[in-house]
Amino acid sequence: KLESLAYPESGLQCDDHQVNTHILSKDPLVIYIEHFLSPFEADEIIRISAPHFTPSTTFTGGTEKFDPSVRNSSKAQIPRTNLVKCIESRAREFQGWPRDTFIERLWAQRYGTGGHYVHHYDWGHAGGRHSGRRDSSFMVYLNGGSEEELQGGGTNFPRLEPPKMDDANSVEARRWCKFIECEGEKTVAASKVVDGVTFKPIKGNAVFWQNFRSDGSGYEESFHAGLPVTAGEKYGLNIWSYRHPGHRPKV
Ligand SMILES: O=C(O)CCC(=O)C(=O)O
Ligand SMILES: [Fe+2]
C-alpha cells in the first residue's frame, strides 16, 4: 500500500467546493454525500480513466485473482491531474485531515450490465506484521440517477440498520428515500431484495464510511457489496485513506 499513496502537493490551488451531508450512522460513521463531485468533475474522471481500464481482481491469501463470480468489473488507476489532486485534497479535508493518514492513488471502476462486487470488507491487510490499515472508504458515483442510464448497482450494507421511518410521508422517509432504496421501490424489485441499507448510485454523490474503530478493530458493519447492475453501465470512483502511524512521505 505504501507504494501507492498519493502525497499531498504543497501549493496546490483548488476552487472552493460545497457538499450536502446526510449522516446514516455515527458508529461506524457512515455519511451519504450529495455533490461530492460536480457533474463536470465526474465526466472528467471517466474521460481520463478510459484508456487505463483492465479487469478487476481480488486478493485471497495474498494472491491476486480474477474471478467474475466475486467481482465483475474493470478498474483504472487514474492519472494525477490537478483536478484529481484537488479531489484527493477534498477527501482529506472531509475527514478533518486525520493524522498519519494518506489518500491512496485513486481508482475508477466500470461495471457493465451484470457487473457486481460481492459482499466484502475494504480492510485489506490489517494487523499482523502490517502496521497500516485502510481506515476509511469513499464510493463515489460517476454516473447514475436516471433509469435510462443505469439500473441496479446500489452499494449495499447488510449489517447497517435502515433509518427509522414511520411512514412513507415522514420527514425521514422523504429525505432518505432519494438516496437509499426504500420498501416497495422498483429499484428493489429489479435486483433481489437485500437486507440493511442500499445507497443509490447518483452521479456526483458518494458514500463515506469508516472501516476501523480508533482501537484498530474492524467494524463488522462496514461489510458491503456493489449490487448487480441490471441495465446500463455504472462508473464509480474509489477513494481509500490509508493510516500508517509514523509514515512520512520521502522528500
Ligand atoms: O461499486 C460499489 O458500489 C462498491 C465497490 C466496492 O465496494 C469496492 O470497490 O471496494
Ligand atoms: Fe469495497
TrEMBL record:
Boundaries of every Fe2OG dioxygenase domain copy: 101-243
Protein transport is among the record's keywords: no
A GO molecular-function descriptor? iron ion binding
Which InterPro entries does the UniProt entry name for this protein? Oxoglu/Fe-dep_dioxygenase_dom, P4HA-like, Pro_4_hyd_alph, Pro_4_hyd_alph_FE2OG_OXY
**Cofactor(s) the protein requires to work:** L-ascorbate
Query: Mind naming one GO cellular-component term on file for this protein?
Result: endoplasmic reticulum
State what protein this is by name. Fe2OG dioxygenase domain-containing protein
